[in-house]
Amino acid sequence: MSGARTFAITPGRATLKRLALLVVAIIALLLPVIAPDSATTGIAVFTVMYVGLASAWNIMGGYTGYISLGHAAFFGFGAYSFGLMLNYLNMAPGYLPFVLVPVAGLLTAALAIGIGWVALRTRAATFVIVTIAFMFMLQLLGENLVKLTGGGAGLALSYSHEWGGDFFNIPYYYAMLALAVLTVGVSWWIRRSKFGLGLLAIRDDEDKALAVGVPTRSFKLTAFVISALLVGMIGAVYAYYVTYLYPQFAFDPLIGISMVLMAFLGGLGTVSGPVIGALLLEPAQLEFAYHFGASRLYLVFYSAVFLVVILLMPRGIVPSVTDLVQRRRRSAAGPTTPTRGSREAVKAASP
Amino acid sequence: MTLVLEAAVLGILTGGVYALMASGLTLIFGVMRIINVGHGALVVLGAYLSFALFRSLHMDPFLSLVVTMPAMFALGVVLQLVFIRPLKTDREALSVLVTYALALGIEGVLGYVFTTNFVELRAWYENASFGIFGFHITWVYVFGFALCLLILGALFLMLYRTSFGGAIRATMLNRTAAQLIGVDVDRVAAIAFGIGVATAAAGGVVFGITNAFNPGSHYDLISRLLTIIVLGGLGSLRGAVIAALIMLVSEDITQVLISPVWANFVFFVILVVILIARPQGLYGVRVRDRI
Amino acid sequence: MRKPLSMIAAGFALVLSACGTSSNTAGGSPAPAAPITIGVSLSLSGDFSGDGKALQQGYDLWAQDINAKGGLLGHRVTMKYVDDASSTQQVVTNYQTLITQDKVALVFGPFSSLLTIPASTVTDRYGYAFPEPAGGGPKVFAQGLHSIFFVQPAAVEDNLVSYTKFLLSLPSDQRPKTAAYATEDDPFTQPQIDKAKSLLEAGGITTASYKVYPAEATSWDALALQVVNSKADVAILGTQEPDAVAFVKVFQQQHYNPKSIIETTGPDQGKDFADKVGANNTEGIMVPAGWTSSAKAYGNEKFTIEFVAKYGGAFGDISADAAEAYSVGQVVEQAAQKANSIDNKALITALHSGTYQTIQGPMSFDSVGKPQGGVGVYLEQWQGAQAIFVYPSSVAAAKPEYPKPNWP
Fold first, then answer.
1. Global pTM value
2. Which chains touch A (3 or more CB pairs under 8 A)?
3. Which of B65, B178, C304, C311 has the fewest CB atoms within 10 Å around its CB?
4. What is the ipTM of this complex?
């Protein structure tokens, strides 16, 4: 069955998983107490941001197999809508502006309906490129609608000057964390729902899914919009955190590619994969550039690590490790045919 | 009006090089069903190779193609063997990441060797121009355009008049069927990738002589090339050529009639409108995408 | 010190980064005469990496000089550079890390003006003084931060003011009637062009054409053709280096000979510019410049001699970026002496009063860090394959050549 979990759950495993989750949750919640210096919390803000982004991207890219390289469009749109609302409503900086985050998310979702309607007429490679095109269109709008966005000179957001020094990062950290938890929760819920089953069926074989009665068009669009909504909200918090937006940094193709990369690294279409991918990659990247950027070979190292990971673990960490663990167990229990991921299972079953 | 005409002429002349670069990209897609996100970086690499030959041996940029095209062909074959062929599952998506990583690697190496300052390819005739209809056209644009036509012509001849071209086209149409009729699909893929990369070298020279470039130029380049091949229809050489001309002419005319800052936007609007009407692009064939 | 690679290996970066750092004090001033580190985030890779290196040279040279004098108030200075890869996330992370983890005593500004603003909000939060050589657009000062100091002779938007004064000072029969403007939509170039345009229009010079083009463009021919077709008497161009070269080439190819050409950046790059457009073609081209290797400003001779000794090349090849970075050091040095402290709070107070001598001339700062009372930005012109000061006459090494001679 395409929706079946990719691995068998045994009681021992489940307990272990729950325990691991608990540890992660405690660390995440207490991080600002354990390490209150802003070098750490600053990296944590961006790391948790990417946990959310990669998981949100995965709802579309991982579950349906439609690879969007243009999700930075939603990130930037959420960021700019938040910034503009904040400025036009003349809201006092502090905790209150966080209520605008869901509004920015909803605006982004509305935009995603339009983009999705056009982009989802295409498939596979064309879809990939169309999403990039939309991202650049929004970037150009950000640059050219100077009266609204400030254009290339950027958009300044007000921020609380009372949150000085090491405290500043903490509200943003918890806001990002809340969004990341929400996103992972949604992702988990979808993975177990009938809707999620439909999405996975689309990934495995869209024509066949349509034939067996999955409303592919509305399912794809729904996944796309949910994904965009979450990304837009995260973009809004980002805007409030960095306090200054430029079109080329808010609609940055590298942000779009980073979320894809993290999801791939961790394991496409799994709930935990994008989380693990982001936890590994983002701090590593920030640290790497900080310590080795000056060597000018930073890009070469980065690309080499990237290539090795993809070539050695093309399916990502979570599926590869799961396979390994399973194979060990099987060989201990006696020879059986190893079960593979859901996609292969479906492919093998279909003539 | 003269301005619009002038812009159109310039658009066609500069469109030639985009047609050439996009052809290589769409050829690679057609044969292997992969999006080579590293194509822009390979173009920039080609430009830098010619730049290095000019700097050390004072070799004319156009002449240096005799050296760089075979070298880039070999590089293309090697890249295909080492990085693309091992991808078994999920090729389409993974190839995007692999080729993106290659692009970053190329950018990093170029930045290390040549620094990130902008450079341009030079030739003694670079400022020579001739007058026609009351405006001046620079010879390098004409040479570049002619070179692009020449290579595109050779590419079409190879595809439609040789047996190897037949094998490529068969692979593009249906990989499995081509295999069944005895085409060595892996070999075709490696050579096609090599050819695509070799055309990137030629594109690099023409691009480098008409544009300032640095190792980071590939981001902008690849986003333009990708939209061109989607507008033309993925895998269609003819489509790539037409779409490249549409892009450059529409951009240059927008610059004149509206404003330079909206130039790219107009092309994207054309792209979206055409995709609403024809999701497969101008010359694309609607096929089942997953093979 | 954390090691990133071991983090990757350990596979749980967050936990490690949480355990790896335990201290939580913000960087205050260290014990007297202890060695100090000054942190800078530079764009050493990515879009803006071109000039990062020149800035680094300027900072390094200053550090060498100050250490030769026995240090900054006796504190030996070490510079620490980290790369921001031309990205906002990275520049924010970098300054946070420099301040809270590496505990640098002082911070200096990054190269790209785009990154100066996000960086300054971070440094301001920690009460650090932020003298910076590159971010001087109106938006920088609109933030209203008291800790930022733009170390150039004038705010960016005033860069072309000298040029407009020069044009309007010409006798009316020679004065140009029309001007064509083209500028990148960049916070560095566009404010200059817009201000020049409004001043010249007020002075009676008609605008023949005004075009803004994207900063990411790499081909400028169609645009340059429009300037050509405007047949304006003067061409005023808001460029960075590559487009500065492209405009000159197209003008020459099209046999367009305006009476005057000025470009905001490009012609100030010395030999590099001459190589790219051809030395013969440089004659008469103008550029606003706050600094020149031959200026008789405070410490300039020493700077140029040492620079050439350390990095090679000729006086004319020294980038203004390096001079601006060196000036940042000079300003901080004098402020430290005045406050008799290297504490950031004391430095900020000191910098808001008094005048500071730099190789770019004297300058002082208003409450939001805008340079004041300086000599302003001069006008430099290429004459005989060399860029020299030509206006105002108080600093001029030669008379301005006007009209500009036709292309060779």
1. 0.85
2. B, C
3. C311
4. 0.83
